[in-house]
Amino acid sequence: MTASGSGDPKDQWPSRERLAELVLRPTLHRDTFEGWQHYRLTRGQLLPPPHLTPKQWAVLPVDRRFDYDMFRRLTNVNLPLQQTPMAAKVTRLIKRRLHGNALKMDDPTLAGVMVSGFGHYGKTATVSAVCAAFEDSWLQLHDFLNPAAVPGTADLHAPVVYVSTPVTATPKSTCQAILRFFRADTRASATLPRLVQLVADTLRDHGVRALVLDDISRLRMHRADDQDVLDLIRALMSLGVTLILTGVNIPGTGLLREAKWNARQQQWVLPPLESTRVNGLEPTQTEHRFELVEMDRFRYTTSEQINTFLQHLHGIEAHLRLLNAKPGMLTTGTMPEYLMRRTNGIVGLLSRLIEDGCQEAMDSGHEMLDEGTLDEIVIRRDDPQLAPEEVDPTPPATAGRTPARRRRGRNTVFDDHGPASAAGSAG
């Protein structure tokens, strides 16, 4: 998105007209075909402007100086998505499931994936990126044609559908959300069987291979409607598409019953339903068809964890554009420990702290990030200097537990090896 230019610094970033297009472009949500395609085709294309020293900036014409500053702001608040170890684990699983399911033949029900994690852990960004990459490769494999096209039609080819779970979900509203991705008109009087059939026809006609249901943790199993939505999800699994469900703390929501971490098996396990004593079918049809993976935060205990965090900071630092920025601005001295303390290693909070800090640095004329500048930024309602071991990233205990166990649950975090005490975890 940068101009090629002729070597003159003032010609190495977009014109004001192009900047206006970038800044004033309409927001396209991913839960429509147009919005998803816009995301897929433009992700990762924002290239930073060249580095300028304060002296080089000062000699720019006033209008180009304004343009450069606007482009810097645009760059600093759109940090690139980096492949962290936490995201890599999720990426590998989804990629394996998508490509494997897409090549299956005559399998009546395709296995799905659940991606769980707490707020700002990067679930949606990671899932969207891997699904967009899958769509790129799938389209190239078929020369951008729909291999399942119905003769005599010209349906859109949409290998991936992204849908946000309705706030008060019902089977009908969930079907309507899927159809709305294609801006399909549905009558308010349409019956549920009719809507389910429309969804099945739409997914087939558009060559859909993956259906992402974001914010699935909005479902609460004490509501009859939400239980019916779970039945609908089971039905969708038999339509030849891979279901990818993302949500906050899926194991603790009761969506598929309270899951527990099995350290010996190194995976989440689900206790048996009461109904299994009658027929034993429901776990086979639902839980056994999903693999649950947990998004984690950065840790800061072992040398490997510290190096991983530093690499992530280095990637951010290379993207930022501040006039007084020096190499190692985020990675040397006490800055890494400061950033870990402020954000507890949570990717989303780290991004927000740095993005807001860059705006403060530009507005104040300081033009660099240091602890003094970042101290001015509040990124959450609690104490911004809260130590990591004091942060509670776990869900509240369920009502069936004893008070003593509930107190211990609030001091528990999840790492790659299952539950661990917060006092002994990285932070």
UniProtKB/TrEMBL annotation:
Gene3D superfamilies associated with the record: P-loop containing nucleotide triphosphate hydrolases
Domain of life from the UniProt record: Bacteria
Q: Output the Pfam families linked to this UniProt entry.
A: TniB (PF05621)
State the InterPro entries in the record.
P-loop_NTPase (IPR027417), TniB (IPR008868)
Q: Which SUPFAM superfamilies match?
A: P-loop containing nucleoside triphosphate hydrolases
For the region Disordered, what residue ranges are annotated?
Answer: 383-427
Recorded protein name is Uncharacterized protein
- Origin organism of this chain? Streptantibioticus cattleyicolor (strain ATCC 35852 / DSM 46488 / JCM 4925 / NBRC 14057 / NRRL 8057) (Streptomyces cattleya)
